[in-house]
Amino acid sequence: MAPIQLHWRSSPLASAMHAAAAVQFDQTLIDPAMQAALEPIVRELRASLVSHRIVGRIFFAHLPHLAVEYGNPVEMAEIALRKAKGSSALEYTSLYAEHLRDIVEVFKRFHPANAEELITRAGPLRELWESRGPGLLMEVGRIAEPQLIPDNAQVILVQPVLGGSGAPHAWYNSLRIEAMLANPVADLPEVLRLAWLIGQLQLELPRYRDDIGLADSDRVGALALIPLVLAAGEYVEWCPSDAATIEKALAVWLPEVDHAQTIEPLLSWWDVYQESKLPFGKALAALGKLLPKG
Amino acid sequence: MKLFAAAWTLCLGLVLMAPCALAQDATPKAAEVGAQRVFVCGHSFHIFTAKILPDLEKGAGLKSSLAGAQMLGGSRTLAHWNLPDEKNKAKAALRAGEVDVLTVSPHALLPDEGIDNFTKLGLEKNQNLRVMVQSSWPTNDGSLNPKFKNDDRNKTTTAQLRAMRAMHSEMWLKNLEAQVNTLNKDVGRKCVFIVPASDAVFTLREKVADGKVPGITGQAQLFSDPLGHAKSPLMALVAYCQYAAIYRKTPVGLPVPVVLKDAPQATELNKLLQEIAWEAVTSYPMSGVEK
Q1: How large a percentage of chain A has pLDDT more than 90?
Q2: b/e per residue, A198-218, with b = 16+ CB within 10 A?
Q3: Which residues lie below 8 Å from residue B46, measured CB to CB, with a gap of 6+?
Q4: Which candidate in A164, B5, B156, B214 could, as Cys together with B129 as Cys, close a disulfide (CB 3.0–4.6 Å)?
């Protein structure tokens, strides 16, 4: 198993889309002023999506990656519309491109030097990753199975607007992560979040989805990878992997998850999984049975 | 592979069901199942039912007629199938049409071609044969730890037991269900069923962990070794599952069987085991039994 190759990318456009997606998904930005400025624009965009019967969740999920890939709102809007509804939505491309320009404009008001800032911000995370990150992923592959680790991935660094956040874009083999200069939680370094996001990129493979079903695989996979990544993190001496740390990571990495209902089945599943070493896809399906319905 | 199909016959040899119904489903309604000639063919997590079932049948006022038993330690059903004819009591009984119900117990490796083979052989001589495939519990609790000890079971929490049950279901039971469904389709009738002994065992262990089982204070008391061989309460539980699936009757109310006679609080324990077995069998559609 060769070490993973990461391609580090960033762009103000991607940061703007990340911020807009956070507002769209009702998350609270650390800068209330930017939140207040973005909300009406996102609201307007959301209203357009509703009126055109376009799935907003899918539309927004594609934008950060499309931003670094294409770099202009017209192409971004066109592809996101295709993904969220299909070619019948393309007649609205110019309207949605305009919505995206509005978002970028607001974002740039608050972060005019985002491109330069991200260069600076990339340093600590990247250096830390290169020291032990590939080894950590090798350990994830050893504990679970090597197929879980992609050969390469794109890491899209975005402006921190939530104080530490990220999301996988499995369909593009990329992920976005806020480029934090310091760890928001001292004993849970952001580099572990990066490993956790990378670990989710292969979950779209049939071997992981066949037994659990498409609808639940993202949620269950993200949960399952928390103890797995922390165990590998302990191996490279980045963190402990005890129950308390797993609980903490759950709260920090997946704040939207019902913590009280989730933590006990997750910990029990992890205990049993470590002993049994089932194929990871089967183990995911088992975890799906134990968790409250998403 | 064939399932070891046990042909069932009604009392006095009367078949009261309409022929068209039989063509679809060899299973009688609960009230229509009388004494059955049962052949027990399995491994060490299963073979003890051959001794206990006659006792249960006697307690239920059924005429006991064990058709035979055949045991191979750690075996797949295929290992039984592959026994030479001169040693193969199961094949002989099926060929003689002396079996109403065949109970088998596959091991970890699935599909188990022996189930298919025995079923098809048995159906040649008895179109009303039923085959009961026991879903056994995982050896060593599914642990790969070579230092796993029986006493480790006492530390297993109810949440961990639920996780083990889910893993067992995903890793093994689903495959068994797929094989049985395919086989039933292949033979054109629903004559192969699964006895969810593993579910009952997990439930009993959860109750032990919660301190709700009379006379049993630790899960390790249910097993005689790390592998998971059963002690008396577990043997009785599995036998009750088999009884419920074979006769489609609740075991609740049957007297304390010999296997439990020395157990502390035997009467209370017996009732609980009966209830767990009946609930496991009736809540599992592939047992073919409804409440």
Answers
A1: 90
A2: bbbbbbbeebbbebbeeebbb
A3: B40, B103, B104, B105, B134, B136, B238
A4: B5
Write out the two tokens for B237: 């539980």
CB A208 within 8 A of CB B170: no
Q: Does B162 touch chain A (CB under 8 A)?
A: yes
CA distance B59 to B256: 9
* Residues paired with residue B193 on neighbouring β-strands, in sequence order: B132
Closest CA to B25 of B193, B174, B143, B138: B193
CA B131 to chain CA mean position, Å:
10
From the candidates A216, A271, A274, A276, which should be mutated to test the interface with B, based on the most B CB atoms within 10 A?
Answer: A276
B158 contacts B42 by C-beta, under 8 angstroms: no
Give the pLDDT confidence of A127-155 residue by residue, as tens digits. 999 999 999 999 999 999 999 999 999 99
The pTM (predicted TM-score) of the whole model is 0.85
Q: Is the pLDDT of residue A27 over 80?
A: yes
In order, the DSSP letters of chain B are -B--PEE---GGG---S-HHHHHH--PPPGGG----EEEEEE-TTTTTHHHHHHHHHHHTTPPPEEEEEEE-TT--HHHHHTS-GGG-HHHHHHHTT--SEEEE---SSSS-HHHHHHHHHHHHH-TTEEEEEE-PPPGGGG---TT--GGGGGG--HHHHHHHHHHHIIIIIHHHHHHHHHHHHHHTS--EEEE-HHHHHHHHHHHHHTT-STT---GGGGBSSTT--B-HHHHHHHHHHHHHHHH-S--TTPPPPGGGTTSTTHHHHHHHHHHHHHHHHHT-GGG----
User: Measured between alpha carbons, how far is B41 from A259 in angstroms, rounded to an integer?
Assistant: 47
Helix (H, G, I), strand (E, B) or coil at A161: coil
**Predicted complex ipTM:** 0.81
Give the count of alpha carbons within 13 A of A151, CB side only.
0
Which candidate from A265, A277, A283 shows the least CB-CB separation from B159?
A: A265
Domains present along chain B, CATH in parentheses: 6-287 (3.40.50.1110)
Q: Model confidence over A160-182: pLDDT tens digits?
A: 999 999 999 999 999 999 999 99
Q: Are A121 and A158 in contact (CB under 8 A)?
A: no
What are the boundaries of each domain within chain A?
Answer: 11-113, 130-149+180-290
Residue B11 is predicted with a pLDDT of: 27
Chain A contact residues (CB < 8 Å to B): 211, 264-265, 267-269, 271-273, 275-279, 282-283, 285-287, 289-290
CA A114 remoteness from chain centre: 20
B178 touches chain A (CB under 8 A): no
pLDDT at B22 exceeding the cut of 80: no
Q: Give the whole-angstrom CA distance, residue B229 versus residue B220.
A: 11
**What is the number of other CB atoms lying within 10 angstroms of the CB of residue B233?**
24
